[in-house]
Amino acid sequence: MKRNYLILFLTSLIFSCNTPTETISLFNGKSLDGWIIYGTEKWYVENGELICESGPDKDYGYLGTNKYFDDFILELDFKQEDNGNSGVFFRSTVDGVKVKGWQVEVAPPGYHSGGIYESYGRGWLIKPDQSKDSIVKMGEWNKMKIKVYGDEVTTWINENQMIKIKDSIIGLGKGGVALQIHDGGGIKVKWKNINLTKLN
């Protein structure tokens, strides 16, 4: 009997450590409140959508939260117009247009959307299987989900799991969420429904 109680206790402990506690909207559909612009690229709100677009400098640009988030599930919609090379950073910090942390890739089909790239570090940590290249729909709304818990990260696009990775260095990371616009010019990406659920 004592053994059964112990198993029940340990099981409940495991589940309680990965339980959603609070869901917050990171984008209110009206303004960039709660975000910080890094760089000179364009970030603006139009028709309830958050839009990033290349500016005259054609440099990297970031829009980062003004708060840090450790363990969470992040869900958002994105639409790539023109060249859609972008990304979603987690547990990351930005200084000017230099970002330190981890990016979930958002790119045209065939360019590893949903994979994890470590900026100014080890580079690509994991890429989705090539069979998943067609999951991202260019010029259409796509749904992305990112789960970050301890040293484990899982990503989904349009309800398809793209990658899952455990990494001790990610487990030590501290920082916020940031959206990226790549350098080179000619890029435009739209975002909406950006919601983050904190995990215990």
Calculate Rg over CA atoms: 18 Å
Pick out the low-confidence regions: 4-16
Strand content: over 45%
How helical, in percent, are the residues? under 10%
CATH-defined superfamily: Exo-inulinase, domain 1
Order of helices and strands: HEEEEEEEEEEEEEHEE
The CATH topology is given as: Jelly Rolls
Instruction: State the end-to-end distance.
Output: 29 Å
Average pLDDT metric? 90
Count of alpha and pi helical runs: 2
Shape: globular
Write up what this structure looks like.
This protein has helices spanning 2-16, 168-171; strands at 20-25, 35-38, 42-46, 49-53, 61-68, 72-82, 86-95, 98-106, 116-119, 123-126, 141-149, 152-157, 160-166, 176-181, 187-199. The chain is mainly beta. Strands 1, 3, 4, 6, 11, 12, 13 and 15 form an eight-stranded antiparallel β-sheet that branches. It has a seven-stranded antiparallel β-sheet with strand order 2-5-14-7-8-9-10, with no helix packed on it. A hairpin with a 3-residue loop joins strand 9 (116-119) and strand 10 (123-126). Mean pLDDT is 90; it is low at 4-16.
